[in-house]
Amino acid sequence: MNLKLISACLLAAVALAACDSQADKIGNASTVFHLLGKNDRIEIEGFDDEDVQGLTCYLSYAKKGGLKETVNLEEDASDASVACVQTAPAVRFSERAVAKPKQVFKRSSSLVFKSMQVMRYYDAKRKSFAYMVYSDKVIQGSPKNSLSAWSCYSGAAASAEGVSSGGQVYGSCIIGTAPQK
Is 128 a domain residue? Predict the structure, then answer.
């Protein structure tokens, strides 16, 4: 009976580990050679914030390889970096939708107990976004983190054409009044 329960828990944990956020793999760089299994590496992924159209964030993070990764028992280091850039002529969002901090990305970093996540913070006074990446564990997290900040005033000014009623242009941002999700 205990073997069945343990097997079911392991299977559930593997399934949950596979349910990571949607991101596009950009590339990787090998850091440590392993004769068996994949090498240790730094992976790079890009993802879009669903509430902020025209802004893309890129993550680089340490990934353990070897035999443990083959059977999904590795625990990745808490080393990660995030950078966010404008990827459209204008960035569009609703201040109501971005007012509260929100987790915009999450990835499992071990079988069950550790995850890496990206939180979005909006600074309404400065019309800026801050994206912070960090890892946490069920028992104890890591103070290692990385931050990327992006301002509406860092790009070319957006055109006021096509701005819906109630919307305003601030630098390269078009801020609408859409209801909060």
Answer: yes
